[in-house]
Protein 1
Amino acid sequence: MSGLGLVTPAGVGVPANWDGVLAGRSTAVRPPQLAGLPVDFACVVPDFDADTLLGRRKTWLLDRHAQFAVVAAREAVGDAGLDIADCDPHRIAVIIGTGAGGTITAETQHRRLLETGAARISALTLPMALPNMATAQVAIDLGAHGPSMSVATACASGATAIGLARDLLRFGVADVAVAGGTDAAVTPYFAAAFARMKALSTRRHDPAGASRPFDVERDGFVMAEGAGVVVLETEQHARGRGVRPRTHLLGYGASTDAYHATTPAPDGVGVERAMRAALAEAGLGSDDIGHVNAHGTSTPLNDVAEAAAVRRVLGRDTVITSTKGVTGHPLGAAGAIEAVYTVLALRHGLVPPTANVQAVEPAVDLDVVVDAPRKNQGTAAVSNSFGFGGHNTALVIAVT
């Protein structure tokens, strides 16, 4: 991985994000669009001025989720020191995952249809709302003519996109891949739907303390938005431009529970398969892994199922953290955002704390990082991501 880009509730840009997750402070607020709903709080990207970052015309053409993706992709490409003009554009792939697509546009235009009639629908509705459009807009913005595709594995989408992008490089289909995930679904429709499923925390009296992964009093996740993007390139391409990437994606594992539409398989057996596959591909064992960046949603079922899988694969002494205590759950962007956090933890030698943990759930039975960052003891880490439908993705990342 030669470049990183982030847009999250912890801030716009990698430096602001790293400071935010190390501080371990929740970003939950009460956004006006959720007023009056049963769950009226979420984690949203602060001070996101799309007109300044992208220009007014591009902002007008893009749904918020695509705006996030383009901003994060530009940062990642800049961080990689990659000059697109010096590359073969037909060998640059773009793979972006999303769980919801352009839901703000879809909800806004559907409301307009009902209130004012078909003639008032924007002609840009589909180019803004379709789930492939974040990928398309990143490719257009960069001038990337290689393979491009959108990934939808629910909340594992961003991590799956990174894994698939790595495979394109390994198979010789591309030299460079811009990959990640994005979502901007903090909307009345999604908030109401998740609330009806009883998936969200109902801690309305304490939004800042609501996202508490692995805590004994966790009661659901907190919705969030954002994007994470990485630049991957083959070693030959990197060497050809005089770059030696310090971070490598050594292993990618994926599995499907095939158990239930929303409930994880008991004891995390699908998670275990994904982790073991990623570690086997990386050629690493439990002693090589310094920490796990968990999916860690703060839901009663996910946290204990994931912990059970981690214990079986890596042992009870495994150091584990979840940055969702700070950012909330950015849905399809989560896996990509957390892959970037894993890279930063390895580069800086620090594991961010899990925010809001007052007492670790006894059934977790792992070494959960709480209160303050902890010195990282290893050169490799696992980043886990899971999604509704039973999608499981594990990435093994290492530094040299």
Note: The radius of gyration is 20 Å.
Protein 2
Amino acid sequence: MTDRAGTFDGVHRRNLSKVLGHVHLEGPLSRARLTAMTGLNRSTVASLVAELNAQGLTIEQAPDPTNRVGRPSPVVAPDPRVLAIAVNPEVDAITIAAVGIDGGIRARERIEVDHLPTPAETAELVASAHDRWRTGPLRDARIVGVGLAVPGLVRASDGLVRFAPHLLWSDVPIRAIVETATGLPTAVGNDASLGAVAEHLFGAGRGVDDMVYLNGGASGIGGGLIVHGVPVGGSAGYAGEFGQNRPGIDPAGDRRATGGVLEDEVSRARLLEVVGLDHGDEPALAAALAAADSPAVTDEVERQLRILATALCNAVNVLNPSLVVLGGFLATLAERDLGALERAVAEQAMPAASEGLSIRVAALGENRLLIGAAEIAFADLLADPLGR
């Protein structure tokens, strides 16, 4: 393949990528603002925007009528009809959404299952949703691909699911399986790592360069890392498996699983059981916990929070983040008393490492993993809007 990075065509493509990337991350921007952000001149920006409009990637809107200073500048926005299909397969449900390049959710389904979904079944459900939506809410859409957020070890080089223990998937070429079922290019990543990316770009971690993200889902606890503003995947893509760590548990009476790892002790399943639910999504669990007045519920929540604080302390000592973001049922636990959790972590961590530390809940709520999955589906388009 010819390397065109230094050619006029290569520079042109990079400039298109810059403009599209800015409106994707920031939302609608005036041409004047894009000129300042890219460092390009006004005529170049106008030409790039016209080309992106012609490609169906951006649209121009009337300038803000309240801005009366100087000559009005047209506002450039990502075209909301450009979409990715985002998928999060879990042990109790498969969630599928159509996520716009503007961040909007055009369609969303949570399909509950009473058995562990197989890779083939997952692909069939995605293809079925895609086909139905194409004749309904997405009939005017340009769907660029599929992104999957899988709760397991995903090999970065080719998207192979090496091991998703709770789904019982092992060495599954899920990318190829979904591509065959849908006819769409597909990308695959670890669910929590993608949640970290989503919260870093659009949510609670926006603008934060050093962040630890922990996700609590039906399959346990996963994590993602942002270091110096860059997602950290490790040598093969498996970094961030906080749920498999073995935190010290004190007092000993807090332990429920002999020899267990973090996700055996801090567990969504245990919370569902104590509130009397067989299953439920995140809002259902949060509502049940909020409504419960049983001492058993209070004791279980406090037990899990004590263990979570120790696990977070270990992460703070090792990584020295300025922010910890908690998603899923971990956010539900933390919201009981976020200040108390911060204090419990600070009391156990090295004082210097925890200086200025903040703990927040995920700002993107139930959509965080889907937005992260969409981001990897958009990656090639954002890198080269003209395609290769």
Note: The chain has three domains: 8-78, 82-194+368-383, 206-363.
